[in-house]
Design a protein that fits this description.
The protein is an all-alpha fold and 274 residues long. It is built from nine helices and no strands.
Length: 274
């Protein structure tokens, strides 16, 4: 099985690069052939990636969360999967090139630097911890996809303001749809992060002897949850729309990145796994 894992690890970045190229060609040339091929490539890439994560879990006896490069691999899958889910519920077109490019970068880094980890802390073999971390990664992936659509919204808004009706205007969805895509992505991320936090609240105190609610990761995650929850309430009950809600989510994402850096790099945490 280990040889198969190593083989798929090498194949995965090529799949993402090929998928990105086809998405890019479809964005530039709008060919029916590329439009059809990109869907199949996305499904194949996500499927192979899922099998790879499953095989690593079975072979090494723990979820792939024991190093930052394993986390990168999970995050790459999570971003692509979030986009896949979004495609199911919306008629999203011509934006996959921006999403797939992020997954491609994370997977390239993971493939180059990932290591095989048989000997890990015993707590890392717990299935609840794996579910907790993977759910959180899926949640953050939803916020990442939302930020991409938020940036595309701002780009298109500026193009329209400048009466510049070029490729960006012709290829991107309407401002209304980009806003919806950003919002739906936030909702997906918020639900999954809420699930991860629920597992953490119930299980983490009994799993770590040095558990504390003042842990930097817990505090930063809670603030992120509050920010995006406020944005969702503002959209649903406060009649927020357009640039207001997009800017709120983008500011929230900037805080998310900053807080993750501080909590994982600067401040010590009881549940630092690598």
């Amino acid at each position: 099985m280990l040889r198969l894992i190593h083989l798929i690890n090498i194949v995965l970045p090529f799949l993402y690069v090929f998928t990105f190229i086809v998405y890019y060609l479809d964005f530039v040339k709008e060919s029916p052939v590329y439009n059809k091929l990109k869907r199949y490539l996305l499904y194949i890439t996500i499927g192979v990636h899922f099998i790879y994560l499953l095989l690593r879990t079975l072979e090494f006896g723990h979820a792939p969360i024991t190093s930052k490069y394993e986390i990168f691999c999970v995050l790459s899958f999570a971003i692509s999967f979030s986009f896949f889910v979004l495609k199911i519920f919306t008629d999203v077109q011509k934006t996959g090139v921006f999403i797939v490019s992020i997954s491609m970068i994370f997977q390239l880094l993971s493939t180059v630097f990932i290591i095989d980890s048989y000997e890990v802390k015993e707590v890392l073999r717990n299935n609840l911890l794996g579910l907790h971390v993977v759910s959180a990664m899926l949640g953050y992936a939803g916020f990442t996809v939302s930020s991409v659509y938020g940036i595309l919204f701002v780009m298109l808004y500026k193009e329209i303001k400048l009466n510049n009706f070029g490729m960006i205007f012709n290829r991107l969805p309407s401002l209304e749809l980009l806003e919806k895509l950003s919002f739906y992505s936030v909702v997906i991320g918020f639900v999954l992060l809420s699930f991860a936090m629920t597992i953490g609240i119930i299980w983490l105190p009994s799993a770590f002897t040095d558990f504390t609610y003042l842990d930097p990761k817990l505090i930063s995650t809670s603030i992120v949850w509050i920010i995006f929850g406020t944005g969702i309430l503002g959209k649903l009950a406060g009649n927020w729309y357009g640039k207001k809600v997009i800017k709120f989510f983008l500011i929230g994402y900037v805080f998310t990145i900053l807080s993750m850096f501080l909590a994982n790099v600067i401040f010590p945490s009881f549940h630092s796994f690598y």
